[in-house]
Structures are given as C-alpha cells and as structure tokens.
Amino acid sequence: MPRPEVLDQIQTAEDEADEIVAEAEAERDDRIAEARERAAEIREEAEAEARELKEQRLADAREEIEDERETILEEGRQKREELVDQASEREDDAVEFVLELFEEAVHAQT
Q1: CA 69 to CA 61: how far, in whole Å?
Q2: Which of 8, 19, 27, 104 has CA 20 to 30 A from 1's CA?
Q3: What is the reported pTM?
Q4: How are the residues of the chain apportioned to helix, strand and coil, as percentages rounded to the nearest 5?
Q5: What is the pLDDT of residues 42-100, one digit of tens each?
Q6: What is the per-residue DSSP string for 48-82?
Q7: What is the rounded CA–CA span in Å between residue 2 and residue 110?
Q8: Neighbours of 49 (CB within 10 A)
Q9: What is the pLDDT of residue 18?
Q10: How many whole angstroms separate alpha carbon 29 and alpha carbon 33?
C-alpha cells in the first residue's frame, strides 16, 4: 500500500476515533445532566414528604395535647364537683357550729 493511502487511513481512523470520543463525551454529559435532574427531583420529593410528615406529626401532637388538656379539665371539673358536694354536706354542720359559738358568746355576755 502506498504511503499516502496509509496516512489517509490513519487520518481517517484518528478522525473516527475523535468522533467516537466526542460522542462518548456528549453522551456522558447528557447522562450527568439527566442524573442531576433526577437527583433534584428525588430531593424535592423527599423534602415534600418530610414536610408532609412533619405536618402530620405536628397535627398528631396537637391532637394528643388537646386530648390530654380535655382529660385534665374533666378531672378538674370532677374534683370541683366533689369539693362542692363535700362543702354542701358540711354546710349544715358549719351553720350549726357558728350558731353554737354565737349562742355561747351571747350567754357569756349575759
């Protein structure tokens, strides 16, 4: 084979190799861009899920606190009722005791 043909074949092979490398680099860049886009999508989805989970946990905590608050208030109402009942039961005794003290005081002055 004559030398110019060999050089042409070498040049053609080098051009083809350069083209293959350029295509591979372009494909690599495309894949990297796609991977970055997908990573951004995944990150956004994860952040959205985290926000939803946070909001749900806050709602659950608020509900639990409200339930506990109602329980405490109900216990307070029951305790107040008990104290009112006890005071009512002892009201007659207290009135009688005060009257006795009054009568004693009146008798002591006479």
Answers
A1: 12
A2: 19
A3: 0.53
A4: 95, 0, 5
A5: 999 999 999 999 999 999 999 999 999 999 999 999 999 999 999 888 888 888 898 88
A6: HHHHHHHHHHHHHHHHHHHHHHHHHHHHHHHHHHH
A7: 156
A8: 10
A9: 93
A10: 6
